[in-house]
Design goal:
glycolysis, 5-stranded mixed beta sheet, binds alpha-D-glucopyranose, 18 helices, 6-stranded mixed beta sheet, alpha/beta, 532 residues
Length: 532
């Protein structure tokens, strides 16, 4: 009984009402605008220099590397030009030691080695062709780069991007901590290691996973208006959306094509409200934050994403286990247990270890609607070394886990709803009756039961969206964003390279613009080789 009462009290702490959602959206819009106006605000609002989304007709073979939170993925993508693609990929777990290595070289070396293995396995022709070319490099034409594979580098951390393949790491998130890399151009770090292995690969584009998701969604399901937002709800959470250039008031230092009047912005909403003006904060959130590698940062992410939900639950369970008046995972004798056994929790249970509770078990809890919660109880046994948990234990576990999951989904609606309102599309007659398309990816949105439904329910409660507006928000899974999306941006980068005038063309253009024809021919000999 004491356990049930205490559970109720805890569940109430994770309640996030419709009113809270609306207060959250207001503040989200304020901080979003602040991020568009100046650098150094809590939501970074990073300009990506990507000014158009694809329409599905793009073609070509590209490589993509995705350094996300948990895994490294290397893939090649053949874009077929008809909204379809073929993808070959390999995946490797990122060794924990590399996430907190002394120098970034160890991490980037690991990535380059994985690229090498991938090319040798899946694109040996390119590899061999390139090696042969190197051997014949002495020919008068010198080395040409036909065999070079262009690579889109999905680097899902906050980066100050200054060009399509140049960006300086602002800070690590999701448990990574290699101080040496901060402030460095991550594309150059990767290219250096690729060059050391003599691979025929050019890091052509730097992509956040959310931008990739937005691109992939636009490529595979083009509507009349294209996708508005790409969002990740996985290990971390973040979103990238299309913003009007006229609303970006801070200085744009890189080169970009302004013909569309729009640019994709990487919000880095994981850091929304680091100052905790409106985010719900329980004592458990405070404890988790204090014990994280980056206290005070990514405060929204720490309440929403998969990496943290299991840990919040674990911290709550530990507090319950410490309270001797509440008998969690403990009973007096077998007569109190409907399985006629006695419950014990092993000292080596993940519940007693930091990060020891994998969020995946929260999905099991949410899904188990059997009368005796048998599936969840088995899982508690196999995953968390709780021997013979009672029904009351499982009920408490399920109620608290669901409350944490539901709060996360409703908080997600704050971000998605905020972006929809910011776009103005719901009230713009040009988009009347058009769906507002949102591409999402990540373990949470894919596997946590009813995450999207809970998000949708909260969207309906937002002033300015309502039932009718929420109906128009189409949230669809966009898998492979970091592969296909990165490939698409590598393609954009290649087009930009091709479009870029050679030095001679530029000088001729300048000459004609200035009507300096009478100055005579430009001496082509003075044009440096590298620029041609
Ligand atoms: C973290 C990163 C962000 C990324 C997100 C999802 O929030 O800072 O760049 O997009 O995780 O992977």
């Amino acid at each position: 009984m004491a356990l049930a009462t205490e559970t109720k009290r805890l569940v109430a702490q994770f309640e996030y009402t419709d009113e809270d959602v609306n207060i959250g959206v207001k503040e989200f819009l304020r901080q979003l605008d602040e991020g568009l106006s100046k650098n150094g605000s809590s939501m970074s609002q990073i300009p990506t220099y990507v000014t158009a989304v694809p329409n599905g007709t793009e073609k070509g073979l590209y490589l993509a590397v995705d350094l996300g939170g948990t895994n490294l993925r290397v893939c090649s993508v053949r874009l077929n030009g008809d909204n379809s693609f073929n993808l070959t990929y390999s995946k490797a777990a990122i060794p924990k030691a590399l996430m907190v290595a002394k120098t970034s070289r160890e991490l980037f070396q690991f990535i380059a080695q994985n690229i090498e293995t991938f090319i040798k396995t899946h694109h040996y022709d390119h590899y061999e062709h390139h090696i042969r070319r190197r051997e014949t490099m002495s020919n008068p034409e010198g080395y040409r780069d036909e065999a070079i594979l262009r690579l889109g580098f999905t680097f899902s951390f906050p980066v100050r991007q200054v060009g399509i393949n140049k960006g300086y790491l602002i800070r690590w998130t999701k448990g990574f901590d290699i101080p040496d890399a901060i402030g460095k151009d991550v594309c150059a770090l990767l290219q250096d290691e690729i060059n050391l292995l003599h691979l025929p690969v050019k890091v052509a584009a730097l992509v956040n996973d959310t931008v990739g998701t937005l691109m992939a969604r636009s490529y595979t399901s083009p509507g009349k208006t294209g996708a508005l937002l790409g969002a990740i709800f996985g290990t971390g959470t973040n979103g990238a959306y299309i913003e009007k250039l006229s609303s970006i008031k801070k200085e744009l230092e890189g080169v970009y094509d302004d013909s569309t009047g729009e640019m994709v912005i990487n919000t880095e909403w994981g850091s929304f409200d680091n100052q905790l003006n409106v985010l719900p904060t329980t004592t458990f959130d405070v404890k988790l934050d204090l014990e994280s590698v980056n206290p005070g940062i990514q405060m929204f992410e720490k309440r929403v994403s998969g990496m943290f939900l299991g840990e919040i639950l674990r911290v709550v369970l530990v507090s319950l286990l410490q309270d001797k008046s509440v008998q969690l995972f403990h009973d007096d004798n077998s007569s109190h247990n409907d399985w006629k056994s006695t419950t014990t929790i092993a000292p080596e249970s993940g519940i007693f270890k930091k990060w020891g509770l994998d969020s995946a078990i929260m999905s099991v809890a949410a899904l188990d609607n059997t009368p005796d919660l048998g599936t969840l109880r088995q899982e508690l046994d196999s995953q968390l070394d709780v021997y013979s948990p009672s029904m009351e234990d499982a009920q408490a576990f399920k109620a608290i886990a669901c409350a944490i999951g539901r709060r996360a989904a409703r908080l997600s609606a704050v971000a998605v709803g905020g972006i929809v309102l910011q776009s103005g599309k719901l009230t713009d007659p040009a988009y009347a009756d058009q769906p507002i398309d949102v591409g999402v990816d990540g373990s949470l949105v894919e596997h946590y039961p009813h995450f999207r439904t809970m998000m949708h329910d909260a969207l309906k409660a937002i002033d300015g969206i309502g039932e009718a507006g929420a109906e128009r928000i189409r949230i669809g899974i966009a898998k492979d964003g970091s592969g296909v999306g990165a490939a698409l941006i590598a393609l954009v980068a290649q087009r930009m390279e091709e479009k870029q005038p050679t030095a001679i063309e530029s000088m001729q253009q300048v000459r004609s613009e200035l009507s300096l024809k009478n100055l005579g021919a430009i001496d082509e000999a003075v044009v440096p080789d590298a620029a041609v």
